[in-house]
Amino acid sequence: MSLSLISGSIIICPELRLRQSPSFSRISSSRPLFLSSHSKQSFIPRISRPIKVTSISAMETTAETITGGVPNAAMKLLFVEMGVGYDQHGQDVTSAAMRACKNAISSNSIPAFRRGSIPGVSFGEMKLQIKLGVPRSLHQQLDLDKVKSIFPYGKILNVEVVDGGLICSSGVLVEEMGDTNEDCYIVNVAVYVGY
Fold first, then answer.
1. Which GO terms describe its molecular function (predicted)?
2. I want to staple 83 with a disulfide (CB 3.0 to 4.6 A). Which of 96, 103, 108, 150 is the partner?
3. pTM across the whole model
């Protein structure tokens, strides 16, 4: 599948089959679908630059298909948990990273390690690799030991910090909450779980 930008419209290549609201009729696969922000059905945001999207089935995904140092071949990958964390007041990127990690692991239960569902793998063999998206200007302020303390179990093999996240305005400076400015820090995380 590929998407391209032509005069403020998105072209979705013909190999897609989509349903259209409200009639739910099939769009012909013989011609591209053109979407633009002028549509009366719903608002579609404009894309500011051409993009190419490729897809790989879940069964084909391996550690080698993901760029960067995490995950790596030091473990067999089972799950990827993703989260986002914010620090709206106080300008503490470590708090934002800790919240991102809590967000990633809070909505999951992985009983396979406790129940012996993976033959030959015990609870003590659970491994984690963590990839944090943090604004570049804040990398040096990040306390990785505090971030690691969020994970209640599993051996942390690697923590990779990459450019990512966001610094934006919270809209208000609240000195009582430790603000020195209106900055809000946002951090993204991917937690790779395996054995």
1. GTP binding
2. 103
3. 0.64
